Amino acid sequence: MSLLDLSTLLVCVTAALAFVNARYLRLPASIGVTVGGLLISLVLLILVALRVPLALSAVEVVRGIEFSDFVFQGVLSFLLFAGALGVNSHALWSLRGPVIAFALLSTAISIALVGGALYGLLALFNLDISFVSCLLFGALISPTDPVAVLGMLKQANVPKRIETLVAGESLFNDGVGVVAFAVLAGIAAAGAGGHGPDLGVGGVLTFFAQEAVGGLLLGGLLGLAAYLALRSVQDFVVEMLITLSLVLACTAMAAHLHVSAPLAAVAAGLLVGSLTDRRPAALSSREKFDAFWHLADELLNIFLFALLALEVVVVDFSAAALVLGVIAIPLLLLIRTVSVQVPVWFLRRRHPFAPYTRRLMIWGGLRGAISVALAFTVPPGPARDLFLVMTYVVVVFSIIVQGLTVGRLAARAGEQRAPAAP
Question: Which InterPro entries does the UniProt entry name for this protein (predicted)?
Fold first, then answer.
């Protein structure tokens, strides 16, 4: 199948899923598309079991899609850039302490607890997976997906400081989680005799700093260059080309420089959004600019969730992996509670937290496409097969169950606005 045929098929399937959802299901777009895609995948799996030729061909088409490349070299940087553009950078700076604590400390706690718990759980099932590989699962499952939750928070009119805190933590823990995954993947490769960073503490810290700090610096420099170009023109089409090239440059240059592309995209989005807010005249039309990136964000998110659901057909499910995935759901919620609560204990004296803040961060910590994409990058073997199934079980529960109920929690938070607390 040619690239044009493949692209046409995927876009048409996504459009059909979005239409059915808008016309009949009327769920939030990402959730409705995911549900529809999962139903199609289930039908395909049944037809494949019956050896229907058309279904076998469809599975081969999906199998030919590199989902991880599509996420990390395609849509992720655009989604993070668009999300960062909509965050109030001044409010985010005022909450820099809590945001950094949640993005770094919470993610580290989550990775460690998930890795340790999974290692013990696998021992009970007599599955021989190394401890570093279990930490790798902790790194891939810890990043949260902010897109659907942020939309619900805005609709529910929750206090702006809660919205900023949740948005900042979600944007940065995506980047931190991806960097931590890269570090642990390198350690696992080195332990297996491959190429990876120095196993010493200093080498790991240097590798982490290169990825994280390097990504932020790259995004900041490219974002500043893009802003200088934006303020020198007053042409909407040129402005869009500048920002599109900015995101692509962040992704491509980050790959060549071995720094974090997600953090580069976040830094660039925050800088461009902040500077254009300070000088509205830098853009020919702020309303059209925001509308363009909001539309791009929505379209890419819908397409990503549709492809996420369709990729189920290429995963080899086993009974043990399904059971472990189901067990992982309450375990991960408990660990998410601990990883959010620990920074709160350290921060609450200087930063009192409004009602529902912690509950929104815990229940609104949805897992999504980033986790699945990272699972696809695990080297082939028993760990990869197990992690893919477990990740899909957790992500489907997260998107459907948590995604459909977090709006009510956000609405309650909006009803109890507390002006003095973050």
Answer: Cation/H_exchanger_CPA1, Cation/H_exchanger_TM
CB 219 within 8 A of CB 252: no
Cα distances (angstroms) measured from residue 133 to each of 157, 185, 188, 211: 41, 8, 7, 20
Closest to 421 in 3D by CA, of 333, 332, 373, 349: 349
First-to-final CA distance of the chain: 52
DSSP for 48-63, written as a single string: HHTT-HHHHHHHHHHH
Go through the domains of the chain in sequence order and give each one's CATH number: 67-415 (1.20.1530.20)
Residue 371: DSSP 8-state = H
Mean pLDDT of the 269-297 span: 91
Classify burial at 23, counting beta carbons within 10 Å of its beta carbon; exposed 0-12, middle 13-18, buried 19 or more.
exposed
pTM above 0.85, yes or no: yes
CA 177, CA 136: separation in Å to the nearest integer?
Answer: 10
As given in the structure block, the two tokens for residue 305 are: 């969730």
Q: What is the C-alpha to C-alpha distance for residues 367 and 144, in angstroms, rounded to an integer? A: 5
CA distance 48 to 63: 13
The first and second tokens of residue 275, run together, are 């500077």
Q: Which residues are CB-contacts of 152 (< 8 A; sequence separation ≥ 6)?
A: 28, 364, 406, 407, 410
DSSP label at 352? P
Query: ∠ CA(285), CA(268), CA(294), 5° rounding?
Result: 45
Q: Which of 139-143, 366-370, 418-422 has maximum average pLDDT?
A: 139-143
Compute the distance between CA of residue 127 and CA of residue 156 in angstroms, rounded to an integer: 45
* pLDDT confidence of residue 192: 60
* Contact yes or no for 48/67 (Cβ under 8 A): no
Report the distance separating Cα 360 and Cα 354, nearest Å. Answer: 11
Q: What amino acid occupies position 82?
A: A
Contact 335, 406 (CB under 8 A): no
- Cite the DSSP H helix spans in 200-318: 201-230, 236-257, 261-278, 286-310
| Beta strand ranges found along 113-179 (DSSP E) | none
